[in-house]
Task: inverse folding
């Protein structure tokens, strides 16, 4: 199974991905931002990310991993379609589920402010502007093209239990 977590800055993609990874046997977590940061990306950063994710998924599957949790921000259905296509080329039989994480805006901003307390550089204004832009893109649609909506208001342990029930994983 490949689980893709999409959502705006500060919503909890990495936290949920890590918690899911810890609860799924034979799993690996791939953080899109970290993957891009490993090597300077070429001009087409998204294609580079998708190619690298597909390569890493294939590598981990050969090593016996059964589940992959990927988190990143995708702003358009075509971007997720491209990722799905590249992942299906690696493993056409894998179940691939994409979730769009949701959270009230006030709580999203509170989480951003909270994480800023642990950072050396004050990026509060940049992050507030970024989250407003990303939320506008992600939540301005009426379809599920950017993922199945999944509310992340609860603590991580509750979210994992709900996600595993949604995925029908024991």
Result:
């Amino acid at each position: 199974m490949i689980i893709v977590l999409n959502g705006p800055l500060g919503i909890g993609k990495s936290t949920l991905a890590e918690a899911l990874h810890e609860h799924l046997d034979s799993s690996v977590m791939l953080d899109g931002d970290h993957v891009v940061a490993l090597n300077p990306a070429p001009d087409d950063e998204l294609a580079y990310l998708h190619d690298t994710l597909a390569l890493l998924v294939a590598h981990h599957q050969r090593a016996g991993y059964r589940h992959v949790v990927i988190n990143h921000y995708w702003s358009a259905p075509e971007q997720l379609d491209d990722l799905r296509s590249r992942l299906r080329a690696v493993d056409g039989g894998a179940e691939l589920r994409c979730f769009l994480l949701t959270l009230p805006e006030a709580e999203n901003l509170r989480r951003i402010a909270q994480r800023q307390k642990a950072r050396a550089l004050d990026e509060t204004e940049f992050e507030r502007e970024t989250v407003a832009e990303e939320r506008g893109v992600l939540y301005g649609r009426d379809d599920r093209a950017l993922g199945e909506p999944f509310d992340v208001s609860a603590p991580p342990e509750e979210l994992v239990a709900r996600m595993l029930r949604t995925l029908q994983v024991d």
